């Protein structure tokens, strides 16, 4: 769906969002200024009502009290329109924002409307009468928002990244293989003009990416170690992002016993990083953004790595494998060390659907955050909270690192105990960051994939893309 700026409304169908007011609402002066019956609509959050007036049909959208309005709820209200009211778009549509709205509510409106057009029907035969949103054009009239065009352009870039993330996570594992991930990033490099390099198994073996290779060695689908380097000529900061890309996770010989059909989502960290990369490139942010995506399939086969194996790593550290289902941290270990050795970014951040422990701590509403730098920690929290992508810190105390000590190797990949699993996993990763002073790890296991009112099955959320974009944008604007 295209959203285009306009100075006047010529459409038959009009979307009118309202903040709740107990003393009643009225139509904008442009549309006659008539009072809206209180019995019909008062602007309560999530309410959607139709109001016909002559040849026009108004769609009234409730955002709740303005003083309590938040981005997440506003976005959800607009998402309902395109997700649940698709017939409304069979006619030309205008979105009208009066003076009560801000740039924040405009962005929530745009991203919500776009998100509502997203469907999981990749392999379904199209219905003859369904609305083709790729052919829908919506005009935006926002006469009192001076930055409307700029916000709309930025929102379009964010949506490109979010849609990319959603599509990668939701499609099945036979489609989204490590090779597919590599092809996706290579195409983005061609589209936006940044450098992409992909190491296959032989090249990875030559340079010593041993932990990365160990995880994928049981699969018939070859691994791909993907490096993308977006460099704006006026770059103001260099950020390194590493994303866990396990395109399907059986658990290996420590096989999963429940919910394995959801394990196509175990590349949610890599998908979020790819989405953030595309959003940054589409918005032409003046930064350098280096991304590393170690992509593998963790399968069981004659060559699969085993519990009790001792494997190498790119850092030179040896790793005792206690649990083959603690595989994401192994590929991230090589990704983090490679990033630090070859690129030395000012900020180093990794995202991963890493542990069930983070879900046990925060449920499905918040991701676990670990950081060696308080300023970066606060910046990530601020960037996420403002758009409903919540992250909250947990400690990186050295005493948890002792849990990962091994008698046989330099470190073990799992402490084997039913507590502090997210923290000990973070301490494992920290051992491969070469003491980076501004490193953060986001465990997004509970937030990248879940239930909602918009599908019958669990599906991708796009978590992390907007958070990372905000972080990058904030550094450009304020250096924080």
TrEMBL record:
Q: What protein am I looking at?
A: Leucyl aminopeptidase
Q: Name one Pfam family in it.
A: Peptidase_M17_N
According to its record, what are the GO cellular component terms? cytoplasm
Question: Belongs to which family?
Answer: Belongs to the peptidase M17 family.
Q: Which GO terms describe its biological process?
A: proteolysis
Q: Show where the Peptidase M17 leucyl aminopeptidase N-terminal domain sits.
A: 34-127
GO molecular function terms here?
manganese ion binding; metalloaminopeptidase activity
InterPro entries linked: Leucine_aapep/pepB (IPR011356), Macro_dom-like (IPR043472), Peptidase_M17_C (IPR000819), Peptidase_M17_N (IPR008283)
The scientific name of the source species is: Nitritalea halalkaliphila LW7
Which UniProt keywords are listed?
Aminopeptidase, Hydrolase, Manganese, Protease
Residue ranges of domain Cytosol aminopeptidase in the record? 167-468
């Amino acid at each position: 769906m295209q959203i285009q700026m306009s100075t006047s409304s010529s459409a038959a169908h009009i979307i009118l969002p309202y903040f709740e007011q107990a003393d009643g609402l009225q139509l904008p002066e442009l549309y006659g200024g008539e009072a809206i019956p209180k019995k019909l609509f008062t602007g309560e959050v999530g309410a959607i009502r139709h109001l016909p007036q002559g040849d026009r049909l108004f769609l009234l959208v409730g955002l709740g009290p303005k003083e309590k309005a938040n981005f997440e709820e506003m976005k959800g209200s607009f998402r309902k329109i395109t997700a649940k009211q698709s017939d409304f778009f069979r006619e030309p549509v205008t979105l009208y924002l009066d003076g009560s709205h801000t740039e924040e509510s405009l962005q929530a409106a745009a991203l919500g409307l776009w998100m509502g057009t997203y469907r999981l029907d990749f392999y379904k035969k199209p219905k003859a009468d369904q609305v083709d949103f790729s052919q829908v054009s919506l005009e935006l009239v926002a006469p009192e928002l001076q930055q409307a065009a700029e916000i709309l352009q930025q929102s379009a870039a964010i949506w490109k990244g979010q849609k990319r993330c959603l599509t990668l996570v939701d499609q099945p594992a036979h489609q989204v293989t490590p090779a597919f991930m590599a092809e996706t990033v290579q195409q983005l490099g061609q589209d936006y003009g940044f450098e992409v390099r992909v190491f296959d198994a032989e090249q990875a073996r030559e340079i010593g990416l041993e932990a990365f290779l160990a995880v994928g060695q049981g699969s018939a689908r070859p691994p791909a170690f993907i490096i993308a380097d977006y460099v704006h000529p006026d770059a103001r900061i260099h950020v390194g992002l590493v994303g866990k890309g396990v395109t399907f996770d059986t658990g290996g010989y420590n096989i999963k016993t429940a919910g394995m059909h959801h394990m196509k989502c175990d590349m949610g960290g890599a998908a979020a990083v790819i989405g953030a990369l595309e959003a940054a490139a589409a918005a032409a942010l003046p930064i350098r953004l280096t991304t590393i995506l170690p992509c593998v399939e963790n399968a069981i086969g004659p060559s699969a790595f085993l519990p009790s194996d001792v494997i190498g790593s790119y850092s030179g550290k040896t790793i005792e494998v206690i649990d083959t289902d603690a595989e994401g941290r192994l590929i991230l270990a090589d990704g983090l060390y490679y990033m630090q050795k070859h690129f030395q970014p000012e900020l180093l951040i990794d995202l991963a659907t890493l542990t069930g422990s983070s879900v046990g701590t925060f449920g499905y509403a918040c991701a676990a955050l670990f950081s060696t730098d308080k300023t970066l920690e606060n910046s990530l929290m601020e960037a996420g909270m403002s758009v409903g992508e919540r992250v909250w810190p947990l400690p990186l105390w050295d005493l948890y690192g002792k849990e990962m000590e091994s008698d046989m190797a330099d470190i073990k990949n799992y402490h084997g105990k039913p507590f502090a699993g997210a923290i000990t996993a973070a301490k494992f990763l920290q051992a491969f960051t070469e003491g980076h002073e501004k490193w953060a790890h986001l465990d997004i296991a509970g937030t990248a994939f879940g239930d909602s009112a918009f599908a019958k099955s669990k599906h991708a959320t796009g978590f992390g893309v907007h958070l990372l974009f905000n972080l990058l944008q904030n550094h450009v604007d304020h250096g924080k």
